[in-house]
Amino acid sequence: MWPLLLSAAPSSLALLLLLGEAPPKALAILFSDDECGTRPLMDETATGSRIVGGRDAILGSWPWQISLQVYQFGTGYHHICGGSLINNNSVLTAAHCTKHWMDPEFWRAVIGLHHLYRYQPQVVKARVSTIIIHSDYDKVTYENDIALFQLEKYIPYSDYIQPICLPKAPLTLTAANHCYISGWGATREKGKKNPAILQETEINIIPQHICGSPDWYWGIVKENMLCAGSEHGGVDSCQGDSGGPLMCYFPDVTKFYLVGITSFGVGCGRPKRPGVYTRAANYRRWIEWQFEYNVSTQISAGSPSSTILLTAGLISLYLAL
To answer: Which of 79, 122, 227, 262 suits a disulfide with 211, CB 3.0-4.6 Å?
Structure first.
């Protein structure tokens, strides 16, 4: 099974190899199970408070939250989807986010962002070098709605920028595991304007047998998906939140884990129509395989012609960050 690989130019790793320099340690295309899922600026004892609907997130609340943006001629970059930082140069998002923009040269990731239109000093912008879409992604059923964006540069961690943990196996969730979603998506169904400040809400995981029942989603929620929201509606993700994280806190290890990737739903906040998320734990091995595959791909791409392609991409004025 080969991934659908869209590459704009060799990554920073390939360029460093061409120049004869050693790449930074974290560019080993791996993710750490130890240094992840923490929020340096937040007091985790406060995670127990319930949130009804959405509210403005505090700066630094979700340091792995990414804004994935597309360049449009004449108007510049626009927020399209959310994403989750999983290491120093990789972002996990939804495959359907690439529906209209398959070329990585049009994309950039904005990390450490709080206000969508006001970039504070902690914000880092990075162009996208490669987009990997799951080869079995189904545009109709949203099965395997997952994609990996690799960035052209190394992103250092800070109080405002951290990776989220990826589960090695399906996680057992209890009342002690408070779960949240975040994003810059619409705050109501058919909303025409995205909120400027990152929004967050606490959310309930809905059992599969309930979410797939006849008066809910009638069996369309598959084993690689999960539902989160409320039976009565009012708490949900919406347009613009796609690809963003559904994250749960595990007090025994004091870490947040990526439980789901925002995928689809019927409307926004409707009763018995919660958001449906790609079940992240079921794709850990797929993600690891992409890292292994791309190491060899990037090294083999290290040729003079690759350098020319990279240079040509960098001088495209409309892609300037």
So the answer is: 227
Distance of CA 126 to the CA centre of its chain: 14
Nearest CA to 262 out of 77, 68, 47 is that of 68
User: Which residues are identified as catalytic?
Assistant: 96, 145, 242
Q: Please write the tens of the pLDDT for every residue from 2-48.
A: 445 554 544 444 333 333 333 444 333 466 777 899 999 997 654 44
Residue-wise pLDDT tens digits, 208-260: 999 999 999 988 999 999 999 888 877 768 777 899 999 999 999 999 999 99
Bridge-partner residues for 277, per DSSP? Answer: 226, 262
Residues 6 or more apart in contact with residue 55 via CB below 8 angstroms? 199, 200, 201
CA nearest neighbour of 284 among 182, 206, 181, 171: 171
The count of other CB atoms within 10 Å of the CB of residue 168 is 12
- Global pTM reads 0.82
- 310 φ, ψ to 5°? -65, -45
